[in-house]
Amino acid sequence: MTVFAQWSIRWRLTGWYCAVLIPALLVLGTFVYLLVANTLAREVDARLSTTAQRVERAIRVVPSYPFPWENVVLPDVNVFSDPDTFLQAVDLSRRVVVSKSRNLGNQALPISASTLEKAAEGQRFYETLTVDGVAIRLYNVPLMLDGRLIGLLQVGSPLTHVQQALQKLRWALIFGSLGMVTVTAAVGWWMANKALRPIDQIAQVAAEIQAGEDLARRIEPPPTRDELGRLVETLNSMLERLETAYRNLAAAHQFQRRFISDVSHELRTPLTTIKGNVDLLYRMYVGRSGKGASGEESVAGAADGLAGDELDMLRDVRSEVDRLIRLVQDLLTLAQADAGVKMMLERVAVADWLPDSLRRAERLPRSEAVAFDVELEEAVLTRQHWANVDALQQLVYILLENAFKYTAQGKVTVKAREVDGGLELAVIDTGIGMPPEVMAHIFERFYRGDPARSTSGTGLGLSIAEHIIRAHQGRVDVTSREGEGSCFRVWLPLEPSCLASTGGL
């Protein structure tokens, strides 16, 4: 991006004004300068030519008594000279100066070989010479008599006044152009500011609408029906549609939250009842079959006629009921989070919840080929912070359940240490890992990184985990490499905070 593109519209418009004006002033100034210089040069040449013509008309031819030839008498050139005009007459036959104006003093106008050659050919011509650092314009006129070249008349004038006039003109053009550019820039800025002021007002109102989330507010249309008027009309129409869409979305979201909350509450009681009855039936069947409370032995035929597959059916029912209860609890948790219900936090030590949570989570289902390792920093266990113990235990379960679920063999490691004044809880596995396109969505609700749904789960666990972390003013960082494993790093502040709130989950 160029520097010009980073300027504001006002500065860009002003820059365009100046960019158009400066070349125009350069062209105009050059034209004026050349025109004046040419005019002054023509005036000097015309004055020299007029003086030369007067001198030519004053040449006289007188008889030379008693000799039979005539003499050419040149006029007194001082009669025709003035302070700014030099005259000099040269006898070409003897190549000596026979007459010159007094203002030349002891000096003589230079005569070059090329001047003599052109004079011998009868040419009248102008030339510019420098004498003692002063530029002099010369007009060379061959003196002819009866077709014979008898001498050379040189009429000159210093160009000092012309050069001074041109120098003043140059400075006048430079300062005049700079002044015009400055005035144009100021006027251009003022015009751009005046033209863009309504746009600033529109942007300010739009920003206020965005900051206040007042979609019912509208931008005041300008009195004119120009481009700005059409822009305001379009923005107001867009705001109206956004307000309608937002209202509909808010209503739908409210209905969804209410529905999930109501369904969760309504399902919780019957599911609890079903679970209690199924557990009772299971214990009755196991007792009648002469099995232990664990029910881990195979059923070889019960005395009361119960078959082993009936116990398997009861186990399946128990498992599905447990899954439904967890799903309902997860939905209820998210519904309360959407409703803005804050967690009730209390000041506890890390040792009050982390070791016990890891001990319980160790019993989560996992492959026999997966080792479980815990590395706890002793110092961090004594630190206290504001926390909801039940929520943090659920967070540990969610992270470890995911690690065990996607690790067929290898190791799952939990590390806890103090980092940057907070507790860093890292769950590292050597499982299947995740590609980048999956990592971008893992905290979305109902998202499953496994399109084939080959693993169990609802896709709500990590969403709940993120909600718990945010409620504790923490953060989570995820790194993963496909085929090598994943690492979830949760950071929770250990400093005292004003997070305690009434109400809870």
Give an account of the 3D structure.
The protein is rod-shaped and about 180 Å long. It has four domains: 92 residues; 83 residues, PAS domain (Beta-Lactamase); 126 residues, no CATH class; 152 residues, Heat Shock Protein 90. It is 49% helix and 19% strand. Strands 4-3-7-6-5 form a five-stranded antiparallel β-sheet. The C terminus is likely disordered.
Tally of contiguous helical segments: 10
| Mean pLDDT level | 79
CATH-level-2 architecture of the largest domain: 2-Layer Sandwich
Largest sheet data: 5 strands, antiparallel
Query: Which of globular, elongated, flat, extended, rod-shaped describes the shape?
Result: rod-shaped
CATH topology of the largest domain: Heat Shock Protein 90
Report Rg: 53 Å
What strand line-up does the widest sheet have? 4-3-7-6-5
Proportion of residues in helical segments: 40-55%
Strand residue percentage? 15-25%
Structural class, by secondary structure, is alpha+beta
- Termini distance? 51 Å
How many separate domains make up the residues? 4
What is the CATH domain class of the largest domain? Answer: Alpha Beta
Q: Quick one: CATH superfamily of the largest domain?
A: Histidine kinase-like ATPase, C-terminal domain
Give a count of the beta strands, DSSP E runs of length 2 or more.
14
Low-confidence stretches: 292-306, 497-505
